[in-house]
Write a structure and sequence with these properties.
The complex is a heterodimer of chains A (190) and B (760).
Chain A lengths: L4 E6 L8 H10 L8 E9 L6 E8 L7 H5 L5 E3 L5 E3 L9 H5 L6 E2 L6 E2 L16 H5 L5 E5 L6 H8 L15 E4 L9
Parallel strand pairs in A: 1-9
Antiparallel strand pairs in A: 1-8, 2-3, 4-5, 6-7
Chain B lengths: L5 H18 L21 E4 L8 E7 L3 E6 L12 H4 L1 H5 L9 E3 L8 E3 L2 H19 L4 E5 L3 H13 L4 E2 L7 H11 L4 E2 L6 E4 L10 H12 L4 E5 L5 H5 L2 E3 L6 H14 L5 H7 E2 L1 H8 L4 H8 L3 H13 L4 E4 L10 H14 L9 E2 L4 H8 L31 H4 L7 H7 L8 E5 L3 H4 L3 H10 L2 E6 L11 E4 L10 E3 L6 E4 L13 H11 L11 H8 L4 H10 L1 E3 L9 H10 L25 E2 L3 H6 L19 E6 L13 H6 L5 E3 L1 H6 L7 E5 L4 E8 L7 E5 L38 E7 L1
Helix pairs in contact in B: 4-20, 5-20, 6-14, 9-12, 9-13, 9-14, 12-13, 17-19
Classes of the chains: A alpha+beta (190), B alpha/beta (760).
Chain lengths: 190, 760
């Protein structure tokens, strides 16, 4: 069976410390001013003392039905054999259709390569070496789990099968592959 | 509450770009050099982080000669191979164009920001001449030496002692000294907390999810997520740790001691404490019990705003999980002048449930000497301390050695802020020069104006740093230290429940004309005519001396970066002791109950844990027994001003590191909506904070995550020197608002005050 790489972000474990964001930048050489990944600490929501923050991972959702790929006029945005939404830099003309089409607002034009850029689960770097993505590797509180959801013995498959999870903007039919375990303070108990 | 979005990122980058252009004009900065690819020392080098003072074990790899990917060293299990944002951004400091890579001499007025590059030889000659001159005229004690702790403080203080000055200081009295001194008074030594095995954790604003200490942060999360521990947090603001807690109480600033004492009251008078433990291991229980009789939960509620019924319930829940429960004694201080009593009260709640040397409680570090004695075998090698014979004994007393009540602090880093009095008021005698290494009192000490006055008055100021920090900006000579990624240092002790060692090693070849601190102070020592006190050739010779020239051990530690020995041992935990005895055939025989409880000893006058202390009573009359005293932290018309740590910065050190500055360069001031409404303030408004000593401009962040009578800002922002181009003028400078005050017994610099607030 083909691989289905997914990322699970446990918002109960996430502390919004930005270790993931910095590690991503270091591994992928992302230039200043743009970012592939950050965690926004939003809130607090609710009435004191029953407040809670939301830890929102903002990065490419690796949609199975990706609008950025559909709108790309040159084929620079494509889905590879590994199923990951990827970018062929030499085919990108910088038209920014994909940047506009992305419902998650996570694509940008890299000021150095002048091509579209975004998170690709470190597929050219760490994944290629058989390592976990940079963000997963450093996460201080083990909030991130990455792997092949088609492998029932994988940690991600176990998490998705046993925990309440949600994905962002599923009503758009994008089928995102970043799963989120909601904070218990958010009202959903897992 | 860290506001990060793409827009601020782009804004940040724009500002960064502009300041880079400015920085190229700065003499001695990295920008003045041609950028060459980084030369890695090996494929993957194990070392020790220095982005904060926790010093986590790391593993680093050079990526394409350009970046360094840093992660945790997975050999250190409790650190999990993880690293925080600051640790991951180490390479951003390494090749920051604004970093200083040449010795500099001031050419304008102090603090004016006019510099010229000089050679190391010239720098050493100038310093040696000046210091020796002062020594001849006024005695060596007229020079103070202060440093960030670690290998660097070891070498700078060695120089200070060789020079003959008793005046050496770490930053302890501006940061973690409070709990250290309280622990010394009660246990005779520092103690550690076993958070990961705890089933019930009571936390008084120790924000481990923002002030990250990797091992403890992971331990707390593990306890919460994997072991079902309950976490109760008492903190005036809704921090990340408050968010992750099962219960959060917005306690009135500086009143933690009342809740801690009320917990002790319930534990004693509802008969929930461990009587057998108290009987065998504790001194001074009766006097303490008598004192806390009046400290009922109802009494505490009246002062702290924490409901009495909750305090009572929490004390019962806590006792029900004993001994695998803990009251976290905190870290950064100092909330109140009653810091010493507060930290002792927190320790007391632990002692009462007998969680000492039990899983999930408190324990003493097991260094090689102790561990080997229990094992009856040399399980772990000792770590030698290379000393030098015939070191001069300082003739003068330390400048903080005026009042006997501070005696425990003299050997624990000293009372840093006494440098101000000694310089400005000649109390107890006149200080004339200050040599500092990687310390930034302008940010971390209170009353910035006083610090400026002090630096201006001194005859001579030397700063060894990686940046022209806010403090270094007032130096006469700046010595550029290599960053930690370019340094080799001594093997350090990292023992916990069993012995462990680790070592800082160079990850990349040195960039620019910088040197490691051990070399700087050795070379300076030679120039000052003190060469005889620096007999070691290099760092490797020192490391080998530490290990008694055992090459096999040496190579193992260098290769793995972190080595631990033996099984974890807690002396009163039967299962651990059983496993230990099974492992080591010559192990010390256990007590009848299968533990080493009777072998537990404390370096206190009685050899027991001292809940009340005659020694402290002699040092400071009336303080032998833990007691509540009313304090006034603000005027009635003022708001409490409190500070804290954020996960992406280290208090006085990282605000100019490009990657981190881009993540967060400003500290919005947290204001409750009711307070903001009363003053007509909205989020994003420019506001002015005014205290008894200073006034700061900031940006309002209106949030329900703070008490109505309190405002909060993250520390370390708002630098005022132009050299820290990315940090300067951004946000509120906390030190500028805090009056200079010292807490009794522990000598801590107090970090809570009152302010008034107005929209600009």
């Amino acid at each position: 069976m083909s691989k289905r790489y997914v990322m699970v972000h446990d918002e109960n474990r996430c502390i919004g410390c930005q270790a993931c964001s910095v590690a991503c930048r270091s591994e992928n050489g992302t230039p200043e001013g743009v970012t592939r990944l950050q965690v926004r600490v939003e809130g607090p929501f609710g009435d004191a003392p029953h407040l809670h923050f939301k830890y929102n991972r903002v990065s490419c959702q690796q949609c199975e039905n990706a609008p950025c790929v559909t709108v790309c006029p040159t084929g620079a945005a494509y889905v590879g054999e590994d199923g990951l939404v990827s970018i062929k830099e030499d085919k990108c003309v910088g038209c920014m259709y994909c940047v506009a089409a992305c419902p998650y607002k996570v694509r940008f034009i890299n000021p150095e390569t002048k091509a579209a850029d975004k998170c690709n689960f470190c597929k050219d770097t760490r994944l290629a070496r058989g390592e976990q993505p940079a963000c997963v590797t450093v996460c201080p509180t083990d909030a991130l789990t990455f792997g092949d959801a088609n492998d029932p013995s994988s940690e991600v498959a176990k998490l998705i099968n046993t925990k309440a999870t949600y994905q962002e903007k599923t009503h758009l039919g994008t089928k995102p592959r970043v799963y989120r375990i909601p904070t218990k303070r958010g009202g959903i108990q897992s | 509450m860290i506001e990060l979005d793409r827009r601020t990122f782009i804004k940040g980058a724009g500002a960064g770009g502009a300041s880079c252009a400015l920085a190229t004009l700065l003499p001695g900065s990295l920008a003045a050099l041609e950028q060459k690819p980084l030369q890695g020392m090996g494929k993957e080098v194990a070392s020790i982080c220095e982005m904060c003072s926790t010093r986590c074990p790391i593993s680093a790899r050079v990526v394409d000669g350009k970046n360094v990917f840093i992660q945790g060293n997975s050999a250190a299990k409790s650190f999990g191979g993880k690293v925080c944002a600051r640790g991951g951004a180490g390479h951003s400091l390494l090749y920051d164009p604004q970093r200083i890579v040449k010795p500099l001499r001031r050419v304008g007025e102090r603090g004016e920001g006019k510099w010229e590059e000089i050679s190391w030889q010239e720098a050493y000659k100038t310093i040696a001449h000046k210091l020796n001159d002062i020594k001849q005229q006024h005695g060596p004690e007229a020079v103070a030496f202060s440093s960030k702790s670690g290998s660097l403080s070891g070498h700078l203080f060695h120089l200070g002692k060789a020079f003959g000055s008793p005046n050496t200081f770490t930053h302890a009295s501006t940061c973690p000294g409070g709990y250290v001194i309280a622990a010394k008074a009660m246990f005779g030594t520092k103690v550690k907390r076993d958070l990961s095995n705890s089933k019930y954790i009571i936390n008084f604003g120790h924000n481990l999810y923002e002030g990250i200490n990797m091992s403890e942060t992971r331990g707390l999360m593990k306890a919460q997520m994997s072991k079902g521990a309950k976490l109760v947090v008492f903190e005036p603001r809704f921090s990340i740790v408050a968010d992750k807690a099962d219960e959060w109480f917005a306690i009135r600033p500086g009143t933690d001691v009342t809740v801690a004492l009320a917990l002790c009251h319930v534990l004693i008078y509802d008969n929930l404490y461990d009587q057998a433990f108290i009987e065998h291991h504790v001194e001074g229980f009766d006097a303490f019990a008598k004192e806390v009789k009046a400290y009922t939960p109802e009494w505490a509620e009246g002062i702290s705003d924490v409901p009495a019924k909750d305090i009572r319930r929490i004390a019962h829940e806590f006792a029900a999980k004993a001994p695998h429960a803990v009251v976290d004694f905190g870290h950064r201080a100092t909330f109140t002048p009653e810091e010493f009593e507060m930290r002792r009260a927190l320790f007391a709640a632990n002692v009462l449930i007998g969680n000492i040397e039990r899983k999930g409680g408190l324990y003493l570090g097991k260094k090689a000497k102790t561990y080997n004695k229990f094992a009856g075998d040399k399980v772990a090698p000792g770590l030698g301390k290379p000393g030098v014979e015939g070191m001069p004994k300082p003739a003068a007393k330390r400048i903080d050695q005026v009042d006997e009540q501070y005696a425990m602090m003299w050997s624990s880093g000293g009372i840093y802020q006494t440098i101000l009095d000694a310089t400005l008021k000649a109390q107890p005698y006149q200080l004339r020069a200050w040599v500092m290494s990687r310390t930034n009192p302008m940010q971390t000490m209170t009353d910035r104006a006083l610090v400026v006055e002090t630096l201006k008055k001194l005859d001579f100021v030397v700063s060894c740093d990686v940046y022209i920090s806010e403090t270094a900006a007032y130096a006469d000579i700046i010595l550029p230290e290599s960053t930690y990624l370019e340094r080799d240092e001594e093997i350090a002790d990292k023992s916990g429940k069993s012995p462990a060692y680790y070592v800082r090693q160079r990850v990349v070849e040195t960039i620019g004309d910088t040197k490691p601190s051990w070399q700087i102070f050795k070379e300076l020592g030679h120039e000052m005519g003190l060469g005889q006190y620096f007999p070691w050739e290099n760092m490797e010779s020192l490391q080998l001396l530490q290990l008694d020239r055992d090459m096999a051990r040496f190579n193992e530690i260098k290769q793995k970066g972190y080595v631990s020995y033996g099984k974890p041992l807690m002396l009163r935990e039967p299962a651990m002791v059983a496993a230990f005895v099974k492992q080591y055939p010559n192990a010390k025989p256990t007590d009848d109950d299968g533990t080493y409880a009777s072998a537990m000893s404390f370096k206190t006058p009685s050899g027991k844990i001292e809940l009340s202390s005659d020694k402290v009573e002699k040092m400071a009359a009336g303080r032998g027994v833990i007691k509540y005293r009313e304090v006034k932290l603000k005027q009635d018309n003022e708001l409490y001003f409190i500070q804290g740590k954020v996960a992406v910065h280290t208090n006085g050190a990282t605000h100019n590191v490009p990657m981190l500055a881009n993540l967060m360069s400003d500290n919005g001031v947290w204001i409750h909506p009711v307070t903001a409404g009363r003053l007509g303030i909205n989020s994003g408004d420019k506001i002015r904070l005014t205290s008894s000593v200073g006034s700061e401009e900031g940006t309002a962040l209106v949030t329900p995550g703070i008490r109505q009578d309190t405002v909060f800002a993250y520390m370390g922002f708002g630098s005022k020197n132009k050299e820290l181009a990315r940090a300067t003028g951004k946000g509120v400078h906390c030190g500028n608002l805090l009056p200079n005050a010292t807490a009794p017994v522990c000598g801590m610099n107090i970090h809570t005050t009152g302010i008034t607030l107005a929209k600009i």
